[in-house]
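Notes from hallway chat w/ T.B., transcribed later so I don't forget. T.B. wanted the structure written out for a chain they're using in a teaching module, and asked if we could keep both sequence and structure tokens in one place. Agreed to drop them here.
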Amino acid sequence: MILRVMMVLGARPQFIKSAPVVHELLKRSEVTLQLVNSGQHYDYELSRLFFEQLKLPRPALDLRVGSGSHAVQTGRAMMGIENCVVQLKPDIILVPGDTNTTLAAALAGAKLNVPVGHIEAGARSYDMRMPEEINRKVTDHISAMLFAPTTTTVHNLQAEGIASKRIFHTGDTLVDALTAVLPAARKMRQTLLTKMDLNEHQYLLVTAHRPANVDIPERLTRMVKALRRISRNHRILFPAHPRILSRLKSTSLYRKLRLSKNITLSKPLGYLEMIAALETASAVLTDSGGLQKEAFLLGTPCITMREVTEWPETLRAGANKLVDLDTDKVVKWTLRAMRPRSKKPLCSDSPFGSGRASERIVRVILSKTSQLSYAR
């Protein structure tokens, strides 16, 4: 019997964490993969680059949901995904991460009584102001299979009363993805550094995209102020997410960054380029959840511009520091993190697993899907 597995993606972090699962599913003769791209990240060229670098197959359906408010984006995605489910009749729907696409696909599947499997289940920041936290919690509670990446995420799910038979501790697929692309990323490292006129371990990598940081003028101003202070004595590589670039250009902050000779403001990087930049940076300043984990795995000190993190595992041994967006604290802790130090290799004993999460997820799907129902 052929198992029809629908995987719904929509944002570039989902492409990354899903790629190893996709490749594992494609190995199985007893599986038909139905890949759906909601198009939540609507920069077509960059999304296509991620698909190419991760060797993802062309989606069976591309919904091109695009931008909009949370309600508009989630609603469009849910309507499109519902049509996909009716048309393709999957046996299970896999939803990775915590985006609006994740929630939309989980809701569409649950309402049509198709079992949903949530990859990266159980992550919690316990900050309900974050749209991602809402998406995570709702998705977990309506999913039939919860693929938890760490022991902490397993405990989070159990503490919320979710039945243990629905929880599977698999490890994190991000480790699988990082392990797979690291050799190729290292090959392009010198080319990237030469292009950006940077020296290895002598620059700060910066990313920012969360609305709580980039949509509030006061916080965005504090971020730029901190970067300009750091840049007095250090080089900064800042691949600008379209969201923050738009906000910067609407104010004088964009010009201030451009006039700072030690700040390289660039277009977003592909996944391989970003990993190359992250591994060779002396530190990373970010508000991204995925980059916190990747930095931890690569041994790059991380400063996170948030009050909380859904990945407390990264805080161990000071590998990641939460500073919110206090200018003085950002400067202080970033400069401290940039001090020369020896780097550890990719963690083999990390709390995120050893790089076999996708294999475990597929094995569970194949052995358990016939037993699934929404009866609790």
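Follow-up for T.B.: The domain at 3-171+356-371 is CATH 3.40.50.2000 (Rossmann fold). Might be a good example for the class.
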